[in-house]
Amino acid sequence: MTSQISDLADFGWNSFFDSQLEPDDLVATVPVRVMAVYRGGLSVAGPGVDRLIPPFVGTARDEEAVPTVGDWLLLDRETFRPRRLLQRKSLFKRRAAGTGRKLQLIAANVDTLFIVSSCNQDFNTARLERYLALAREAEVTPVIVLTKADLTDLPEDFARAAAKLLPGLLVEVLDARDPDSVACLADWCARGETVALVGSSGVGKSTLINTLSGANRIATQSIREDDDKGRHTTSARVLHRLPAGGWLLDTPGMRELQLTDVKTGLEEVFADVVVLARMCRFADCRHEAEPGCAVLAAVDAGTLDAERLKRWRKLAAEEARNTENLAERRARDRAFGKMVKGVMRDKRQQDGE
User: Residue 1 and residue 26: Cα distance in Å, rounded?
Assistant: First the structure.
């Protein structure tokens, strides 16, 4: 069993997952990791296993009970059908794009999040703050990776701007095409470590993956001269094995990154604003024109940037709205489930009469 656990460690297995096993699990089941999710099934891999399996069908009416990339499953050793989804160490999720309220799972069991931006027009503080809120909520280490350092004479200006977003935030500036430049990321890509990449289209995520993996696994496209942006080339979330033994997950550019259930993450990213808000005269202060507002006083004094306050207001309102909508939907689903169970119970009673 010790040898099997050691082999599993190559795929990101650790004591967190080991503690969830029952005494006979390694006899009756095979632990595998979800490498990719398709409409027709799941691509999974583990020691001696690399195959496509049928979709996992959970028993709970819970959107989070559906496997996503990075998850660990226990497969029946005879049929290779999924039997159990293991508890996650971390989970990235969002409200799905569009007008619906469905929750979309992005990735599970990630150790480090590379938040990729570039030293050109794509650098966007508000977008970085969104990704940081996701990382902090999931308790995943965020690292800002600034690419295309060769396209500017002052890459340090972009690095300083990024570092201001969160105390102690790690920022790396590099040329994604140069292996020597990318070597600064090696510590986060060691054996069994899982790294995810997020960032808008055209910032060089695919180029970075190719350099980290040492192979041109992903097609890349050149930058358009008119707007400094590349054309997006990745269409599915897939785990890639790295030469150093780690795993790297690319997440396609998400045009509508709607925040949901990330209140704690937002409070950490905007801790300076939150601390001030707690000093306001009124507990329900909206920080707009109320007397005794410590937040507005800080803006007037020049100790809080007015644009940062605007970004906090926008993200906090969005998160609250989406979380409330999601809670309402879950409540409706639970009510519907109870109604169905009641109808079936009544029908069984009638049939038994």
Answer: 8
Can you tell me whether residue 231 is helix, strand or coil?
Answer: coil
Evaluated on CA atoms 279, 284, 285, 290, the torsion sign reads negative
Annotated ligand binding at 206? The verdict is yes
Q: Is 148 within any annotated ligand binding site?
A: yes
Q: Rounded to an integer, what distance in angstroms lies between the CA atom of residue 340 and that of residue 127?
A: 42
- Domains of the chain as residue ranges with CATH: 2-89 (2.30.30.140), 92-250 (3.40.50.300), 263-340 (1.10.40.50)
What is this structure's pTM? 0.80
Q: Say if residue 200 carries a ligand binding annotation.
A: yes
Whether 89 and 117 have beta carbons less than 8 Å apart is answered as no
Annotated binding residue 201: yes
Q: What is the pLDDT of residues 282-307, one digit of tens each?
A: 988 989 889 999 999 999 999 999 99
150 labelled ligand-binding: yes
